[in-house]
Amino acid sequence: MAHELPKLPYAYDALEPYIDEQTMKLHHDIHHAGYVNGLNAAEAKLAAARAAGDFSAVKHLSREAAFHGSGHLLHSVFWPNMIAASQAQAAPGGDLADAIARDFGSFDAFKGQFVAASIAVEGSGWGILAYRPTDDTLVVLTAEKHQNLTQWGVVPLLVLDVWEHAYYLKYQNRRGEYVNSFFNILNWDDVAARFESASS
Ligand code: MN
After folding, report:
1. For residue range 143-185, what is the model confidence (pLDDT) as tens digits?
2. What spacing in Å lies between the alpha carbon of 77 and ligand 1's midpoint?
3. Measured distance CA(53)–CA(73) in Å, rounded
4. Residue 37 Cα, ligand 1 centroid: separation in angstroms?
5. Residue 167 to residue 146: CA distance in whole angstroms
6. Which of 159, 166, 153 is nearest to 198 (CA)?
7. Angle (nearest 5°) at CA 170 between 168 and 176
8. pLDDT digits (tens, 9 = 90+) for 105-116
9. CA–CA separation, 130 vs 107, rounded Å?
10. How does DSSP classify residue 28?
11. How far does the centroid of ligand 1 lie from the alpha carbon of residue 60, in Å?
């Protein structure tokens, strides 16, 4: 199913004077729309490649899907993260406030790190407050560009280490052989359990 550009949850000028109306129009209607269209195009081409059994363009298409998919996902979080200043709160309450105090020491300490990290990230990037489910912890991260070949928010179900240390002693430069061999040693029950957990 094709991805759709989500509507802004407020008017283009709602974030004035902090973010101006023209910036919001360009950012949402042109930039975010471009990510949605690019993701749809990449996924259609990947489907065609699967149907044809022709993966000669898979490196390019994977990059396209990661770039546009990450742009779409992050902007879809970014818009509803904001609200008109008249309705905005200075700090969170409830469980999130407790978790921030627990994991960063205080709200001000969190804000200090988030601001510094967002200023320091090189190139086109993002400041990100994220929840790490592996140990139930909040973390501040940054992303350079925004894809690094992934799509934010996905839950990994099956992963394969293709750093050379993972295969070089046995396979040397023959990574393809290593990758194919992986499929002889898979615990699909584990993968299925992760899928059940993530999708239910
Ligand atoms: Mn953007």
Report:
1. 888 877 778 888 888 888 988 988 999 999 999 999 999 999 9
2. 11
3. 28
4. 15
5. 29
6. 153
7. 70
8. 999 999 999 999
9. 15
10. I
11. 22
